[in-house]
Amino acid sequence: MTRLHADALATLRRWQAPDEEQERLRAMYVAHLERHPDGARRTCFPDHLTAGTIVLSDDGGAALLNLHRKARRWFAFGGHVEDSDRRLADAALREAREESGLDSLRFDDVPVHLDVHTVGFCDRRGDVRHLDVRYAAVAAADAGHAASHESLDVRWWPIDGLPEVEDEMRTLIRSARERLFG
Known about the structure:
With 182 residues, the chain is an alpha+beta fold.
């Protein structure tokens, strides 16, 4: 068992899910990690953990989203864990920094939301299911952002004027605002 796997398992075992659906996903993720020593790595096919971060403005009134190059949809920042990630939270923070261009984030290292989604463009073997563990962070008002090679655009969106996003993105944003801003 790697350090990252042990951290992911410990993190998800102690996480307090806010509702029955999130608890169902938490239990599913824990069982996945208990069965698969590589369950946090993309080598685990077809299901593996991923980590992401929703970035909110310092007043909680806007969310920074990226227009994903391959999916052509607006998402929070996130992706696969890497060998350099010691903790699941490290992977989420790294992804947020890489994909947003932000150097400084006030990062909450307790997960805020879980989501399972199928991705058809990640692996040549076929569809994969990302067992996404999502965190939240706040960016300073004057922080400059930039799109990475994985994004077509990175943009602040007012909470009451979000682009077309999945319901789970709205739930993530609402959960992050409740956690970070009360």
